[in-house]
Amino acid sequence: MLAPLSEPTIKRLRPGFPAFAHPDNPLDGWGLGFDSDRFGAILDALAGDETIGVIGLAIDAPAAGGADTAYALAMAAHAVRIAASGKHFVFFNNTAGSGPNAQVRDRLATARIPYLTGMRPALSAIANWLRLREPAPDATTGSVVQSAAHPASALGSQLDELQLHDALAEAGVPMLPTLVVSSREMAVEVAAALGYPVVLKGRAPHLPHKTEHALVRLGVDSAAGVMKAYAELAASMRRLSPLDPGDIIMQPMLSDGVELIVGVRNDAAFGTLVVVGLGGIFVELIKSAAVRLAPIDVDEARDMLGSTRAGDLLSGFRGRGPYDIAEAASAIAALSRFGVASQGVIESLEINPLIVMEHGVFGADLLFRRSRLPDSGSIA
C-alpha cells in the first residue's frame, strides 16, 4: 500500500492541477497534457517532502524509441536536476516487453538513477531498498539480530558442520539429532538408542555433496543393515578421501513429511537474503522458490511458503497433511536471523531438506560456505 501524501505537500501540488483534481499517491503528473515546466514544479513539490524516501517515475519509453520517448527524456532531465539535492528516484517503463530506452538510460546514468523494466520489478526494488536501509529488529528480543548473544556470533573461522548444526539448533532452527559413530559396533549401539530406521552418512569438509558421492544410506532398519552400511561408507571414505577420511554420522530416519530447502546468503551489496522452496528430490524438478531480505518474521515466512508450491503441500494434499506450517515458519524466521548474525563468517548456508511433519520440523542436512570477505560489520 502506498502512503498518502501529507496535507502540506498536497497544498504545494494544487497549482499544477485543475480545480477538480485531488492530488494523491500515486500521482498523475501528466494531467490534461504534458508540460515540462509544470511537471518539474510537481517534482519539486514532492521532493520537498522529507517523509518521501523514493520518487518513482513511470512512463512507456520503448527501447526502439518513438511513443513517449520525448516526454520521458524531459522527465529524466528534471529527475537528474533534483537528484543532485540528494532525493532518490527510480525510473521505470510501465511495460516489460522491450526493455529500457537507451537515450533515457544514458540521461539518468549521469545521476546514477536506476532505470528498470516493468512496474512490478520496480516496486519490489523500492520495497527491498527501504528494508535494506532500515533492518528489522529481532522480534523476540527487540534488539538488533547481530547481537553478541546470538549463537551465530560465537562461530569461529574454522567452522565445522556439526558445530554449525548445534548453533542452528540453539538459535531456534530444530535439527535432527546427529551423532558421530567410529565403528560398526558403536553404530549398532547408537542405532538402537535412536530407534530404527536410521540414516548413515559419510562426511568430510571437501565432500560437501554427500548424495553425489553415494555417501548416504537411508532407511537402515536392522543391526545387520547398520553394520553393512557402515562398512560400505567407511570404504568409500577411504577411497574418496585417503588423506582425511572424515567420519560417519547417524540420524533418525523421518518419513511422510514435506521436504523444504531453506537457505541464507550474505551479499556484500544487498545484505542477507533468505530463500525458501520445495526441497529433497523436488529441488531441481520444481524450481519454485521465494526470496526475501532478512531478517523476516513468522508472518513473512508464512507468506514465503504460501507463494511457492510448498504451500500447497503443507496445507494438505490428497489425504496427506496438513503439516506444521507454524513450526516451519518459525524455523525459517530463526534461520533468517541467524543469517544476519553470521555476516562476516558465513557466505551461504543451505538446509536441504528441512522436513516438515504433521507435528514438528527438523533440519536434516547442511551445506555451507565460509565467508571469503573480511567482516565489514553492519550494513549502512
What does this structure look like?
This protein is α+β, with helices and mostly antiparallel strands. It folds into three domains: 7-133, Rossmann fold (3-Layer(aba) Sandwich), CATH 3.40.50; 137-175 and 256-380, ATP-grasp fold, B domain (D-amino Acid Aminotransferase, Chain A, domain 1); 177-252, ATP-grasp fold, A domain (Dna Ligase, domain 1). It contains eleven helices and 13 strands. The protein has helices at residues 7-13, 36-47, 69-83, 102-109, 119-133, 161-170, 184-194, 223-240, 298-306, 309-314, 325-341; strands at residues 54-59, 88-93, 115-117, 179-181, 198-203, 216-220, 247-252, 258-267, 271-278, 289-293, 346-356, 361-363, 366-370. Strands 8, 9, 10, 11, 12 and 13 form a six-stranded antiparallel β-sheet that branches. Strands 4-7-5-6 form a four-stranded antiparallel β-sheet, covered by helices on one side. β1, α3 (69-83) and β2 (88-93) form a beta-alpha-beta unit. α1 packs antiparallel against α2, α2 runs parallel beside α3 (69-83) and α9 (298-306) crosses α11.
CATH superfamily of the largest domain: ATP-grasp fold, B domain
Domain module count: 3
Number of strands: 13
Strand-residue proportion? 15-25%
C-alpha-based Rg, rounded: 27 Å
Mean pLDDT: 83
Which class of the largest domain in CATH terms? Alpha Beta
Instruction: Please name the CATH topology of the largest domain.
Output: D-amino Acid Aminotransferase, Chain A, domain 1
The termini sit apart by: 26 Å
